[in-house]
Amino acid sequence: MKKFLSTCLKFGAILAVLVILWIIAPCIKAAEFSVPDDFISIQAAIDAVDDGDVIIVSPGIYYENIIFKGKEITLRSKNGPDTTIIDGEAKVSVVAFDHLEGPDSVLEGVTIQNGASITGGGIHCSNFSIPIIRNCLIRKNSESGIYCSDNSSLTIIGCWISENISNAGGGGTHRKLGTGTHFYSYSELLEDVAEMITPLIKKGRTHSFHLYVIRAKNRCGLMKYLVDHGIATGLHYPIPLHLQKAYAHLGYQGGDFPVAERTAEEILSLPMYPELTEQQIHFVVSQIKNFYAGGE
Predict the structure, then answer these.
(1) Which of 11, 160, 244, 253 has a CA 20 to 30 Å removed from the CA of 179?
(2) Contact between 223 and 212 (Cβ < 8 Å)
(3) CATH of the domain at 277
(4) Same domain, yes or no, for 208 and 112?
(5) What is the pLDDT of residue 183?
(6) Domain containing 75 — which CATH number?
(7) Banded model confidence at residue 15, pLDDT cuts 50, 70, 90
């Protein structure tokens, strides 16, 4: 009985400590560190601090390429992006989030400039990272100001993205496969198929497609071929507006809008959803090419 009571008392004491910690945790102030007062560089501060800490960067130009390394920290400037600049010296990405950073990894109030990388000169985000970027100026970077891939995403709040360049994808922002925008791969892989027209994306612009609709010769034949090979497609939409029953009272007839009618006979929606993989896209494209090559 004494042993039982002793065990209960120990358990109760542990539980009480946990409850106290739970109550006071929100009141514990995060440790703050300054660059360059406490650390000579921003990366040195990131390497040294712990989760929950705050790094405050004083005005100046910092020639660095920083990696958050999965730290759940806030990195912010003291006086805003106009006076606090991180310059990548055209080496690699200025800022990298590629260690499973979550929404508690925050970058705030800095200018990010002069980075150069085929996977995002300004900010590179990958490997399921979901950080927050707030009140930043992202400018004059090569191969996209912001690049996301591998099911990563950024929450961007009050940022200005300008004067970034790219030879492929978006100069301002570029989302790659795994993030729910697969149009780059479709368009690139289908550009040599003469029998179809892919969606137009103007230079310097990006598009988050809800549907990826092509115009294809022998649309019905292609549609049947893809279904026979396990690929679902759709028609959005098969009947032009002027021939819909809802607009019959307007008196339009077949032939009144020949471009719309011809387009309705050619359009075909290819698979497009967030979980679509690169391998699946390559399979869809290979079957389209097989069909037009006369394959069985």
Answers:
(1) 160
(2) no
(3) 3.90.1150.10
(4) no
(5) 62
(6) 2.160.20.10
(7) low
**Look-up: residue for tokens 């009272």?**
249
* Between residues 21 and 237, the one the model is more confident about: 237
Number of H helices, E strands in the chain: 6, 19
C-beta atoms surrounding 82 within 10 Å: 11
In the numeric block, the tokens 């029953």 are attached to 245
Percentage, residues of the chain above pLDDT 90:
58
Report the distance separating Cα 265 and Cα 217, nearest Å.
9
Q: What CA–CA distance (Å, rounded) separates 170 from 187? A: 14
Q: Do 46 and 171 sit in the same domain of this protein?
A: yes
On whether both 260 and 124 belong to a single domain, the answer is no
Single-letter code of the amino acid located at 287:
Q
pLDDT tens digit sequence for 24-52: 455 456 799 999 999 999 999 999 999 99
pLDDT at position 188 is 81
Beta-carbon count within 10 A of 252 CB: 15
Which among 242, 68, 29 has a CA at the least distance from the CA of 152? Answer: 68
Q: Is the dihedral of CA 253, 257, 262, 264 positive or negative?
A: negative
Phi/psi at 267 (nearest 5 deg)? -70, 145
What integer is the mean pLDDT of 218-227? 94
Dist. CA 5–CA 47, nearest whole Å: 47
- The structure tokens listed for 209 are 């497609």
What is the model's pTM? 0.55
Rg of the chain in Å (alpha carbons):
27
